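pinging the channel bc i need a second pair of eyes. not urgent but kinda urgent?? the chain im working w is below, pasted from the shared doc
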Amino acid sequence: MKSVSKIILTCFVVGSVLLNNVAMASEPTQRQTSSSTSIAKQSEARATHNKLVADWVDLWNGKYSLANGIVSPDVRVRAALMDGGDGSAVKGPAGMVKLITQIRSAFSDLHFDVQIGPIVDGEFTVLRWVATGTYRGGFPGATAPAGTKVNFTGVDMLKVQNGLITDYWLNADTLLIVNQLKVVVSN
């Protein structure tokens, strides 16, 4: 009788453990819940960054009215600009529009498309772009005739806080554009 009691007790204990494990598995643990919440937050952040990047590219494609909604008044631009500047003179949305307008002025139909990205890591977004257009003339040192078709690439890194671009790093393939425009450097 003792061995039967042991077997029944063992079955009862094992059954209770199994039922407890099944019940625990059916209820989300704190780790599972926080993981789901984290994934939802990442998904929401990615959607926000995707929208911001779409507006950013549209801004570069000439929709200047978007600047106030995506560029911080305190934006910091870091770039090796063709005029020798480092981008620090660009101030706020109006300064960004001025920079973009200057770049676009040399090309009648300049158009930007995203090739890679956006790649989002926390508050940073990175994208690789390609620009195509037709040279209008007026680029310092350029010997290519107006009407020359050009394409060049670059990478933008954006720091986004509270839905606005607060920092912008621009790395464009300047050598590619200089070669296409047949720029001659004079001493």
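so DSSP finds five helices and five strands in the chain. and The first strand starts at residue 71 and ends at 78. — does that match what u expected or am i reading it wrong
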